[in-house]
Design a protein that fits this description.
There is one protein chain. The chain has 268 residues and is an alpha+beta fold. It has two domains: 136 residues, 3-Layer(aba) Sandwich (D-Maltodextrin-Binding Protein, domain 2), CATH 3.40.190.150; 114 residues, 3-Layer(aba) Sandwich (D-Maltodextrin-Binding Protein, domain 2). 40% of the residues lie in helices and 18% in strands. It has ten helices and nine strands. The protein has a five-stranded mixed sheet with strand order 5-4-6-3-7, with helices on both faces. Strands 1-8-2-9 form a four-stranded antiparallel sheet, sandwiched between helices. Helix 5 links the parallel strand 4 and strand 5. Helix 5 packs across helix 10.
C-alpha cells in the first residue's frame, strides 16, 4: 500500500485482548481513510465469545475487503492409529469422550473442534494449551490424539513428516496439498477458513473505501505477493466491502450457535 499510495504506511502493533484493543482504537478513529485495521477470522469469534464489546463488530467498521484466507488443519502424530478423518469420527462415535484434541480456549481452533462435535455427534475432548509448541510435544508423544492448527503453523510440520494431516477446514482442497481431503467431504457444511481483511471506521466515505478496495485487488495480482501468501498457506481472496460484511455477520451467527450449544464460557 505504501508503494501504491506513494506515502509511508506505519504498522502499529496493538496486541492484547485477541484484537480488542486494535479494533476499539480503529472504531474510535477519524473516518478519513488514514487509519485501517487488519481484521482476522478471530474478529467474529471474539464477538461470539464476549457478552459485551466496546464496539459493535459490524456497525462500527467500514469493511474494505478480505485479502487472504487460510485453512485450519487437523493432524495426528505420524505413527497414530487414526488413519483418516472419517476414521477419527468413527472412533470418536464408538468411544465417546475418549479421544482428545489440543486447543487454546476461546480461539477458532476451539470453536471448530466443538462445531465438529456438534455436526458429527461426537464428544472429542479439547485439551487446553497456551501455545502450539507444548501441544505439539504431547501429540507426538501420544498424550493427545490430534491437534487442530492453522495451515500457517502446521504445513511445515506436515511437509517434513513431523505431523500427518487428516483434513483441512476450507471449503475446497488446498492447492499446496491437493491430496488432503476437507472436513466437509465427511461432514457436509462444516467448512471455514480463517482470513485477513482490511477495515476502516464506519463513517469513512465510500469513495475512499472503493479506492482502498481497488488497491487491495491490484496488489493481490502481483506474483510476488501471491507466492509470499502461498508460502504461509494463504490463498488470495479479494472481496467487495459487502461480501466482507456478510462474511463477518455469517460467522458471528455461526460461532454464537456453537458457543450456545456447547455451553462455552463467554467473557465479560
Amino acid at each position: 500500500l505504501a508503494e501504491r499510495f506513494g506515502q509511508p504506511v506505519i504498522v502499529e502493533q496493538k496486541p492484547g485482548g485477541a484484537g480488542l484493543l486494535a479494533n476499539d482504537a480503529l472504531a474510535k478513529s477519524p473516518p478519513d481513510g488514514h487509519t485501517l485495521v487488519l481484521l482476522s477470522g478471530a474478529h467474529p469469534a471474539t464477538a461470539a465469545l464476549n457478552r459485551a464489546l466496546p464496539y459493535d463488530p459490524v456497525r462500527d467498521f467500514g469493511m474494505v475487503g478480505t485479502v487472504v484466507a487460510y485453512p485450519l488443519v487437523i493432524s495426528v502424530a505420524p505413527n497414530s492409529e487414526i488413519r483418516s478423518f472419517p476414521d477419527l469420527i468413527a472412533r470418536a462415535r464408538d468411544a465417546p469422550g475418549k479421544l482428545t484434541y489440543s486447543m487454546t480456549p476461546g480461539t477458532l481452533v476451539h470453536l471448530l473442534g466443538e462445531w465438529i462435535n456438534i455436526e458429527a455427534g461426537t464428544a472429542i475432548l479439547g485439551v487446553p494449551y497456551k501455545g502450539s509448541a507444548n501441544a505439539l510435544v504431547d501429540v507426538l508423544a501420544g498424550r493427545v490424539d490430534a491437534t487442530i492448527e492453522t495451515g500457517t503453523a502446521s504445513f511445515g510440520h506436515i511437509r517434513s513428516g513431523k505431523l500427518r494431516a487428516l483434513a483441512l477446514s476450507s471449503p475446497a482442497r488446498h492447492p499446496a496439498l491437493p491430496e488432503l481431503q476437507t472436513i466437509s467431504e465427511t461432514l457436509p457444511g462444516v467448512e471455514m477458513s480463517s482470513w485477513l481483511g482490511l477495515a476502516v471506521p464506519s463513517a469513512t466515505p465510500r469513495v475512499i473505501v472503493d479506492r482502498l478496495n481497488r488497491e487491495i485487488r491490484a496488489f493481490l495480482e502481483s506474483p510476488e505477493v501471491r507466492q509470499r501468501l502461498a508460502d504461509l498457506s494463504g490463498v488470495p481472496t479479494p472481496s467487495s466491502p459487502e461480501e466482507m460484511r456478510a462474511l463477518v455477520e455469517r460467522e458471528i451467527a455461526r460461532w454464537k450457535r456453537v458457543v450456545e450449544l456447547k455451553n462455552i464460557e463467554r467473557q465479560n
